[in-house]
Amino acid sequence: MKALKRALALLLASILCISFWGCSKPAEETTKETKKETTKETQKEPAKDESQAKTEENAKDDLIVVGYAQVGAESDWRTANTVSFQTTFVEENGYKLIFDDAQQKQENQIKAIRNFIQQEVDYIVLAPVVETGWETVLGEAKEAGIPVILSDRMIDVTDDSLYVAWVGGNFIKEGNDCVDWLAGYLKEQGRENEQINIVTLQGTIGSSAQVGRTKGVEEKLSEHPNWTMLDRQTGEFTQSKGQEVMESFLKSYDDIDVVIAENDNMAFGAIDAIKAAGLDPGEDIIIIGFDAVHAAFEAMIAGDMNCSVECNPLHGPRVAEIIQKLERGETVDKIQYVDEGVFPAETAAELIATRTY
Amino acid sequence: MPKLKTLWRKLTGYSLFFPLTCLAIVLIINLIKTPTFFHISINNGVLYGFIIDILNRSSELIILAVGMTLVVAGSGGTDISVGAVSAVAGAVTIFSLVGSMSSDIYRIPYGLAILLGLLGGMACGAFNGFLVAKLRIQPMVATLILFTAGRGIAQVITQGFILYVRKEQFKYLGNFIPGIPVPTPIFVAILVVAVTLLVLKKTALGLYIQTVGINAKSARLVGLNATLIIFLVYTFSGLCAGIAGMIITSRVYSIDANNAGLNMELDAILAVAIGGNSLGGGKFSLAGSIIGAITIQALTTSLYAMKVTADQLPVYKAIVVIFIVMLQSAELKRMLHSMLNKHSIRKAGRKVA
């Protein structure tokens, strides 16, 4: 019934629009009359009437306009995140998405947000490049009355009314999950009492994913006194840096048992470095990645990687849910975690077909 | 004593003395801190060790530094677009090989794709050259255009995706060719340096570049086509960026438009400066820049080997770079010299008294 009402409203609005284009007064009057009649017939709530009046003003669309200031396309994960938004916020679902790729520069994102404000979008979604420096531009958005929803990374502001909600992964929990999986895996292999040497390829220092995952691993590490964290070094979330750092680790330490790479791309680099050193990744050295991108499943099927802890990039549906709630005037939770899982190599072959990223 | 002094003066007069000293200092510190640093072994049929890593990883930087040296010498400016241009070249090659989807099937022959990538790099270089030589735009501003737009272009080519080439043969250029124990990038770097040196020494081009760099106006008066020479050095720098782009993409058998060659332009400029070259143009030393490039990579690798934590890494790098640059400052040398002189005069005065 609701859908029917909606369709009717849309139809009327488009008729109105056409008549405006024609600019012939009699036609306009007649449509207005018909409109009034139908409104009386179909609905009685004044609220609906109002919304219809609004559509009348906006002429063609009652689409919700969402501006998305994305970080860039630095990894497969990011691309999946982008696609999630592009497939959720489509016209069939009643949205219009304005997408902006900031190429990893904060100034580009600030520019994009100012553009969104000027274009009078209904909602702004921001996946911040860095945590700091957002007060001014988000203040401008607040003044313009546009709600801001954060995706993926958190921001560091004193006034948390600058955003309505944050959607993302729980990086600390991901770190915990990683250690728990490793403990289970070692137990399976009967190595739970062995001395285990671990190295970590960290993400870009200071990013939420790096801070959270390092902390999450650290927290759980104390439960395993026979595990040693030999070294941590940043691979800046890229495959080439991950490879370079792993090359160096392999030369500095003779007995590495586990590599924890804070994203899958660095794990791929580590796999190449381990292969080049004549070792068998996945067998001689256990490799754990984060994000669980499609390529990680391929690596796991090939036997090069042991596990990937998911960092769900499909934020689009959750953000849409929040927007729908806000449209209805409901309040939303400030912090909203997306569901995430752990994917060991055994499950890779059967799950790869179901993975969308 | 005076013999030692003349020897010292002779040594410091040698233009490569300071660059080599810097490299030596970095390596000696390594030897003390990490005794296994110079250990080289054959592992899995290939050479294996920190020193090999340094040479291998510095290859791209050496290639970029060669192009950058000529740009600096010929135009007295820097080409800050090389990192972005290498991403463009890599994107062109991989896109022409596999299209807009990661794949293991080549659409066109490998050689042709490499050629296209290099042409892409050269085209970017030629664009820079046109802006600088013909339109007389300041080099920094002219190359700033591709510095910002280059990654955008690369992203348009790859449509924002990271494209993978899942073919073993594609990895050879950036890793090892089966049966050869030396990493391929080292050969590529040697080849680029050798060809460049040959052209500069066997033709008068090296001299021409220097002349134009010292004074373009007088070069024009003696009949040199300064515009053409400046255009050529930028095109060459684009070609070098293209070659570096080929290695970068082959290393990770993929193109990541946002990260390929990121910040490499700064390292290349630094390599030229550490090599004792004046960034004001004119006289140049290719060998100096190459040593500079190796020093930068040696620094990074040794900081990894010394287990410096990630958050402190940039600090150490900065300290070493400040030290190296100061060591080569002519003004600082003069100050030190006059201080030493005063000291010896006072000494001599005391003796007389």
CATH architecture of the largest domain in chain A: 3-Layer(aba) Sandwich
CATH fold-type name of chain B: ABC transporter involved in vitamin B12 uptake, BtuC
**Rg from Cα of chain B:** 22 Å
Biggest protein-protein contact in the assembly: A-B, 36 and 35 residues
Structural class of chain B: mainly alpha
| Biggest β-sheet description of chain B | 2 strands, antiparallel
Order of helices and strands of chain B: HHEEHHHHEHHHHEHHHH
Major β-sheet annotation of chain A: 6 strands, parallel
Number of domains of chain A: 2
Structure description:
The complex is a heterodimer of chains A (357) and B (353). Helix content of chain A is 48%, strand content 17%. Chain A has 357 residues and is of the alpha/beta class. Chain A has 2 domains: 130 residues, Response regulator (Rossmann fold), CATH 3.40.50; 141 residues, Response regulator (Rossmann fold, 3-Layer(aba) Sandwich). Chain A has a 6-stranded parallel β-sheet with strand order 2-1-3-4-5-11, with helices on both faces. In chain A, strands 7-6-8-9-10-12 form a 6-stranded mixed β-sheet, with helices on both faces. About 13% of the residues of chain A have low confidence. The longest helix of chain A has 21 residues. The longest helix of chain B is centred in the N-terminal third of the chain and has 26 residues. Chain B has one domain: Orthogonal Bundle (ABC transporter involved in vitamin B12 uptake, BtuC), CATH 1.10.3470. Chain B is mainly α. At the A-B interface, helix 4, strand 7, helix 9 and helix 10 of A face helix 3, helix 6 and helix 12 of B.
